[in-house]
Each structure stands twice: as C-alpha cells, then as structure tokens.
Amino acid sequence: MATTYTKKDVAKLTADKLGLKIFQTEEIVDSMFTVLREMMSGDENDIRIEIRNFGVFEVKPTKAKPRARNPRTNEEIFVPPRRKTHFKPGKLLKEVLKKPTDS
Q1: Where do runs of H (alpha helix) occur along the chain?
Q2: Cα torsion 60, 93, 4, 100: sign
Q3: What is the pLDDT along the chain (103 residues), one digit of tens a residue?
Q4: CB burial readout 45-74, b (16+ within 10 A) else e
Q5: What is the DSSP letter of 103?
Q6: How far apart, in whole angstroms, are the C-alpha atoms of residue 60 and residue 52?
Q7: What are phi and psi for residue 9, nearest 5 degrees?
Q8: pTM for this structure?
Q9: Which has the closest alpha carbon to 57: 90, 92, 100, 93?
Q10: Are 90 and 52 in contact (CB under 8 A)?
Q11: Where are the domains of the chain?
C-alpha cells in the first residue's frame, strides 16, 4: 500500500528540519503550493517550473481528438483540446529513485 503525505506532513517535516514550530512553516508551505498552482493555471499554454535538484513541472496543451471512442459503448466522441500537467524528476531525485530498495 502506498504512503500518502499531506501538506500538513510537509509542513511538519519542514518544521522539524529547520527547528521551527509547525504553525510557522504551515503558512510558508501553503503559500508555496498556492503560488505553484497559480503559476501552473496561468493563461499561457506552455508553462515550465524548474526547481533545481528536484524536478520540472510542465503544463502542455493537448490537441483535440475529433474521433475518439468511448471504450464502454464504442460510441465515437469529440474530445476538446485541453492542458495537461507533467512532472519530470531532476537528476538528484532520479538517482535516489534508481537505488534498489530493501524489501
């Protein structure tokens, strides 16, 4: 089963790492995620947020699909163009994830 971390967990771990109280880091963490969300939901079609030693968040446009098919009903449908998100891990994160786990 996957471990789920919340924004509060991120704030708590950040507070522990910096030797601060949770309420001090909660506002910072919340503000950071708000700013990232606002940047990614901006009007531009192609958005790239690069965080060194962590990774890159991208928002890319998709093309319309005029002849997509509903797999349940086999009905032909039109899928309008939209924007999708993508995350690419940075070099340091990629190296950590490549290491074998002790299971």
Answers
A1: 7-18, 22-40, 91-98
A2: positive
A3: 899 999 999 999 999 999 999 999 999 999 999 999 999 998 888 899 999 989 999 999 999 998 899 899 999 999 999 999 999 999 999 998 898 877 5
A4: eebeeeeeeebebbbeeeeeeeeeeeeeee
A5: -
A6: 20
A7: -65, -40
A8: 0.74
A9: 90
A10: yes
A11: 1-41, 43-103
**Cα–Cα nearest to 47, from 61, 34, 33, 35:** 61
Closest CA to 62 of 80, 86, 44: 80
Whole-number CA gyration radius for the chain: 19
How far is it, in rounded angstroms, from Cα 92 to Cα 29? 22
> In CATH, what class is 43-103?
few secondary structures
Main-chain phi, psi angles of 55, to 5 degrees: 165, -170
